[in-house]
Write the C-alpha cells for this entry.
Amino acid sequence: MTAFAMNDDHDNPYALLGDDHDDGHRWAFGTGFTDPLEGIDTTVPAGLDAGALARYCLALGDDALIYSHRLQEWVTHMPELEEETAIANIALDLLGQARMLLARAGGILGQTEDQLAFFRAEKDFRNVRLAEHADADFAELVGRLLIFSAWRLALFAELSAAPDPVLAAIAAKGVNELTYHRDYAAQWVVRLGDGTEESHDRMQRALGTLWPLTGELFRPDADAVASADPGAVTVPAFMGVIDTVLAAAGLERPDAVSPPAVAGRTGRDGVHTEAMGYILAELQSVARANPDATW
Amino acid sequence: MTEPQWPLYEVFLRGKRGLNHVHVGSLHAADPEMALRHARDLYTRRNEGVSIWVVRASDITASSPDEKDPFFKPSGDKVYRHPTFYEIPDDVPHM
C-alpha cells in the first residue's frame, strides 16, 4: 500500500483507486501479529458462566482453525489460479475467526492463542469432524464448504445477539465473510450438479460422503452461551438453504443421517477421525520444534 | 496445458473515492457471474473497490497501435479544444 501511495505514476491503476483504506488494520507477513482482541474490553459479563463461554469459543475457534488448514492444503492443487485465490481468501477469513475465538477462550483460560493452537493434544480439540474431513475431489471441497458455511452462517447470525459482547462482535464480523463463502460454494455446487453427467454424479456422490457428518453439527451443546442454544435454532435455516441450493443444482439431499458418535461422544468431546492426528502433526510441528520462536 | 481455457475477462473497479471505474487487470472465468466473483477475490483483497465491472475481453473493440498517428496526432496542435481559458466556480464538483 505504501508503495502504491508514494507512486505518482498515473498509469498505475491502484493509485487511482484512492488510498482511504482502514489504516492500521492491514499487515504484511511477519508483522502485526498482536493480540487480535487488543483494545477490546474482555470482561466476562456478570452472570455468564466463564468456563462454558471459554469452551464454546474454543469449539467455534477449533472449527475455523482446522477447516482453514484443510483449505490451505488445496493451495497449489486447485484447477485454476483464480479458484486457488478464492480458496486461500476463505482459508484466511477462517483463520482470522479462529484467532479471535481462541484469543477469547485463551483470555479466560490464561493461555495465548498460539498455546491453544499449537500445544494442545488431539483429545483437547473441540472441532466438529466435518472440519477435519479430507476432500477427495473438488466436488467434496465445494460440497463440504456449502454445508460448513451454511451451518456456521446460521449459527453466527444467532450468536450476533449473544450475551457476551465479544462473542457477539466476532460473530457479527464473521457473518459477511461466511455469506460470501456460502455464496461461492453454492455457485459451484449448482454448476457441478447442473453440469455434465460426470460432474452431477460426482457432486451427488460427494454429498453422500459428507452428509453423515452433518448430524453432529446440531447436537445440543451444553456450553452454548447464547440465550437459547443456537444449534437448535439453526436447523431450519440450514436445511432451507441446503434444499434451495440442491433444488437449483438438480441434486438430492441424502436422507440417511446417522451421527457417527463414539459411545455418545463426537468431535466436540475430543473424539476425532484418524485424519485429525495428521492435521495436527503438520499444523503443530514447527511451533513444537521451536517453542520459543517469535515472529 | 493443451486443455481449452476459460475465456478472458477484463476487470474494472471503482474505488471508494473514485468517480469512475478503472481497468485493473484481467482473469479467466467460465461466465460473467464467475468472473465477478474471481474479480472480487483477485482484485479487492485490500479493500480497493466498491463496485466491479467485468467484460469479456473479446467483446472489447480496441484501436490499433498501427492507427495511432491518424487517430491521435491531429488533435495534438489544437489547443483551443482545451477549456483552460476560464475560471471554474468553486461549487462545480468533479472537473
